[in-house]
Amino acid sequence: MKQKKNNVAIIGGGIVGSLLALILGLNGLKITVIDRQKKDKLFSKNHYVKSYALNQGSSNLLNILNIWDTIKTKSQPIDKILLKQGSSISSIQPFELIFSNDYSKNNYLFHMIEEIYLKKAIVEKIDKCPNIEYLYSSNIVEQFIDKNSTKLVLDNGQIIYSDLIVGSDGYPSSSAKKAGIQHINYSYNQSSIVGIFKHEIPHESEAVQIFLPSGPLAILPLSGNRSSFVWTNETNEAVRIFNLNDLNFLNELNTAFQNRRGQIQLESKKSMFPISLTIPKKVTKERFVIIGDTAHKIHPIAGQGLNLGIRDVAALAEVLILSRRLGEDIGSRLVLNKYSKWRNLDVTSVVFFTNFANKIFSNDNFLKKFATGIGFKLLNESKTIKNYFISEASGLSGDIPKLLKGCKL
Ligand SMILES: Cc1cc2nc3c(=O)[nH]c(=O)nc-3n(C[C@H](O)[C@H](O)[C@H](O)COP(=O)(O)OP(=O)(O)OC[C@H]3O[C@@H](n4cnc5c(N)ncnc54)[C@H](O)[C@@H]3O)c2cc1C
Asked: How sure is the predictor about 364, in pLDDT bands with cuts at 50, 70 and 90?
């Protein structure tokens, strides 16, 4: 039976788990990543529908890992964000809020990247790093943690010992459950339909989000005459829309979007994701820590979930690498508590903001709509408040980890 002793075992090789593996591996730690997915699925275009709006902090981290160079040509800057309010699909109210790159220190606000390109670029770097073993198609049948070490038994009999286990298997998370970490789950009774479409009229690097009563519709620019859509609705309505044939689906999408991009055509399959707010009662235990969606699954209304997970990665990597250099035990409560304290304020603020934004915008109460409409108008005229929002969304405010500033560890 194969046995291995490592510094860190990472359960779940999504973007968050893989990025952590890469940073730790490049800094000399021995890492095993365990993912239940097959390798060929990972590289199949059909498997992916999501695209991400990466903020400046996330781009800086990818830059320092030399991943940004590989994906830059596939990415699309967002130069302008237009937020609009609608009381029904066919009635969009006149109030609008515009953020342009004048409010950013860079000449763009975010960069859009399709999930497949980002995942491929990270895995290619992992394959070249001798300190990382990435196990595909692997399921954990036993997970033991005690004061001195951890042990994972895989379904093929392989045993992995390590100083620390990181749970990055998304939500629901079997690694967190096995470690005795409980989650609080609040369903929004909303689901998001996601995909990519081609269009006739160029997007001119503009992202649009329309707040409709049953949820927001976001159209985000991709390279070429292509855009990603994230269309959130109450779940019953989302299921109805999802089950329409492509022609009827595109007609409804275009009506909701006021035909802003002319004729549209689906480029990818569409997928539907249930939306919930899920937060754990704690993020660390002795020799165990959770990151990414396992540690905070949030509403996609502000496109912040992955950016938040990347900030977890940057903070955890910095804590572990510096503690190891000082000769500390990286699985100890002392070290892991440094991480959880560091992340607490940022995660709580983003959870609060996304939850509040969805409550305010996803409703059809006339007074609330009117009040938020006036709020839009006032905000739109205030350069200071716009600057504040852009700076918060850049992921560069507060006590930020070195990697997010583009500095090596
Ligand atoms: C509709 C929608 C739109 C979004 N848009 C944006 C956006 O624009 N910007 C943004 O920043 N974020 C966005 N997000 C959020 C983003 O998708 C997530 O935050 C991000 O994908 C989380 O990554 P992760 O690696 O933590 O988890 P996941 O992507 O869920 O990865 C988990 C990994 O663990 C593996 N796994 C699961 N269980 C096991 C197991 N038992 N054993 C081994 N492996 C396991 C899985 O195979 C997978 O590879 C969006 C989310 C949704 C739903």
From this structure: low
